[in-house]
UniProtKB/TrEMBL annotation, chain A:
Residues 52-133 form the Penicillin binding protein A dimerisation domain. The keyword Transferase applies. It comes from the Bacteria. GO terms for biological process: cell wall organization. SUPFAM superfamilies: beta-lactamase/transpeptidase-like. Residues 158-481 form the Penicillin-binding protein transpeptidase domain. GO terms for molecular function: penicillin binding; peptidoglycan L,D-transpeptidase activity; transferase activity. It comes from Nocardioides alpinus. GO terms for cellular component: plasma membrane. The keyword Transferase applies. This is Penicillin-binding protein 2. InterPro entries: Beta-lactam/transpept (IPR050515), Beta-lactam/transpept-like (IPR012338), PBPA_dimer (IPR054120), PCN-bd_Tpept (IPR001460). Keywords: Transferase.
UniProtKB/TrEMBL annotation, chain B:
It is a multi-pass membrane protein. The keyword Iron-sulfur does not apply. The lineage of its organism: Bacteria, Bacillati, Actinomycetota, Actinomycetes, Propionibacteriales. It comes from the Bacteria. Its EC number is 2.4.99.28. Signal peptide: none annotated. This is peptidoglycan glycosyltransferase. Pathway: Cell wall biogenesis; peptidoglycan biosynthesis. It comes from Nocardioides alpinus.
Amino acid sequence: MNKPIRVVSVFCLILFMALLVNATYLMYVRADDLGQDPRNRRIITATFSRERGAILVGKEAIAQSVPSDDKYKFQRTYSQPFKYAPITGYFSWYSQTGVERSQNAVLAGDDSRLFVTRLVDLLSNTDPKGGNVQLTADAAAQDAAWAGLEDLPGDAQGAVVALEPTTGRVLAMASTPTFDPNGFASHDFKAVAELDKQLNADPSEPLINRAIGTTLPPGSTFKLVTAAAAIESGNYDADSMVPGGFRFQLPQSSDTVGNYDGGNCGGRRITLTQALQVSCNVTFLTLANELGNEAMADQAEAFGFNSTSLEDLGGQAASLYPRDMDAPQTALSGIGQSSVTATPLQMAMVAAAIANDGDVMRPYVVDEVRAPNLSVLDRTDPQSISKAISSTTAEELTRMLVATVDDGTASPAAIPGVEVAGKTGTAQSSGDRPPYAWFVSFAPANDPQVAVAVLVQSSDTSPDEIGGGVLGGPIAKSVMEAVINR
Amino acid sequence: MSQTGSLMSGGLMTFVHRRRRGAELFLLVLALAVGIGAYAAVGLGLEGEVPADIVGYGGWLTALIVAAHVTVRVVAPYADPVLLPLVAALNGLGLAVLRRLDITYEALGFDQHTFARQQLTWMTVGVVLFIITLVVLRDHRVLQRFTYTAGLVGIVLLILPFLPVIGREINGARIWINVAGFSFQPGEVAKVMLVIAFSGYLVLHRDALALAGRRVVFVDLPRGRDLGPILAMFGVSMMILVLQNDLGSSLLFFGLFLAMLYVATERPGWLVVGAGLFAAGALAAYTFVGNVQNRFNFWLNPMDYYDVTPGSYQLVEALFGMGWGGLIGRGLGNGFPERVPFAYSDFILSTIGEELGLTAVMAIVVCYGLIVERALRIALISRDGFGKLMAVGLGAIVALQVFVVIGGVTGLIPLTGLTTPFLSYGGSSLVANWVVIALLLRISDQARRPAPRMDPVADEAEADSEHTQVVKLK
């Protein structure tokens, strides 16, 4: 009977080899795939229970994990929840947004740059800790931006973005209405789901980061792009005489468009500087009509339209300048109407590019990634993404924008003793809702440290008061002051 | 001298085995280190300190193992020295893992959170039965007298769960009986009884089953009239499957019978017939038994049935857990084995995979492989046909059961409900498996014991046995 016993032995050997091979396949080869499965609660719970790294602004941790005595061991807390919610996002058991999401690997301690730290933790048998993320935000600028939006009358919807023109660092990013990320970080998952449902149903869309996620017609602030295209064409400079007057006859149409105040901008022929100072619709309708859709689109795209450039945050909308607009639409695009839409971030990038000799810098919110012991692991390098305009064009535009603040519609942003460049904007909205108020500016004009864009989407202010930069100007001013005086 | 000895004993037995009890003791110390060390690690991992009862627990475990070892030393001195350490290590590790689950279950407020303590009680019963078996049963061939009795008892045990008063259906399988408040799976005892019955039957009828038949293509097929036993056993297996809804046991009994039939007759033809019957049975089961169809679908596409009922939630959670464990595991107490339903019984391997990693899973599979290897080695060197068949049968039980349950839990084959020998919580299984080991040790003691002396000269042969060479037996 020994021969069949040997056969049975070989058969058993095959069975056990199959078990070993399959176990190796499952627990080594397939392990990563299984870890990626969104239903794998082990991974989620483990991440949720870890001592997650802090998100820092300056030296202050605006998001950090503190020990809690329930089974998840750590509770995520946000010290200034509403003010920084558009940047930090939230960290809940279900998902993450904002920097909590984009820097999840670092914060959770899984990032490859934290390898050495993890190895030390493993050998010393301590629980792994996440790395820290240092934001580019400036606490004073963010305070000013948030206070400005908070002080708007009524339940205003608005957003502020401030950039450092030479680098693209996001110095401030605020949005109202917003939400409390502490609510999402709760360990009471039922309440979290309820909160999520409630905020998603809210018509004022508090979960949207309006600074990067809302696109609206940029109105008169887009005249910066039109003016840039005109000067870049070589036919104009700040002192060129351009058409003014009461009304502009739209091509291929019987319609005419007038100026915002119904005036004539100071004459039939005015300088380009004066046209910008008084925000003369007729002039920029004429220029856009003359330059044509292609030249206008090229200029808009050079500033960053039709794409997104911020890589650290999700939920971005691309600002749009369509390439297939007909002649009347193209003319209207010259004053930021028709199909042109922009985010506050995009308009801040336009201002920053003018301030930075025409170089468009990639905006970023994450400055440094640090190990749990605060040693710097990685630092974001400023990166130029395009040359929107020549430096002479930038100089001309800066001169015109300074005049607009000193002696024109953007005067609410003037700071005593500092040269400020700025432009107001008011875009039409439908029906009886008030128009959107825009304001873009940078300062100091001779050595720009900050470029700001402010959008006030709706507020209880009467339409008359919106146009003159009444709403946006003071907010932009306080943000610029905060940066200049730091 | 050895040649003289071989001549004296009829030219068959030349090699005299050493007792190797010292080696067994050494291995048992290692096995105890695994069991007690794991128990301490559970305390450290979950509660931050070595459990307060480590001395009492370790002492009890040591006492059981020492008792088993001393018994073997006294009544089966030539028994295989590797088997007892292997099962001691597995049983000890199983207890530690159950203790680990108990702590979490208690923290979560589950009703049942004393699995480890109960299992230790059952282990005590198992070791006592192990000792009784070795002490009472001095020669396994005595069992051959009880061939038909054992067969009858085995069948009755299988039928018991259907009886109205004592039968119980738990978790969809009617394989339990309840006597005086204790639940018991008679099938676990039945498998030992059936091995005895098959061995006795086959050793008597092997010639008739082996020699008659006709050749078809290259395979010798058995005669129709000899198909009776295999058909009967096939019928019993199908009955277990359909009536008890127990795919695993059905597979186990039929595979066991087939392996023993093949070894007894030395005819691969039986394997062909058996495989054909199995395929037909599997196809019929797939077609007519919804449960089997589900299991098959869950196996093929586990991820698609994660959140349906009935679904593959249990399997997928086990796969997630083991994948998360990776090479070295999360460490005892750092995983979430409680996410897997029945982590303390059928799915105990997923707990081990999650917290101790692939390394431990491989070590455990190798331990089982060694148990099977020792059983088949005992079969090879056993001098009587009955002993050979019993050793093969007992080895096949372990091999099939381990393959079916570990293969099922790791997604290699469709999932069927069986316990993992010595690791899973379950009194019936643990006690029965300790008896299986006792029987294997008894057969190996008989096989390795020096041949009965025919001549005074043999004394010297035994004294010189250390210098003898291995002579291949065929």
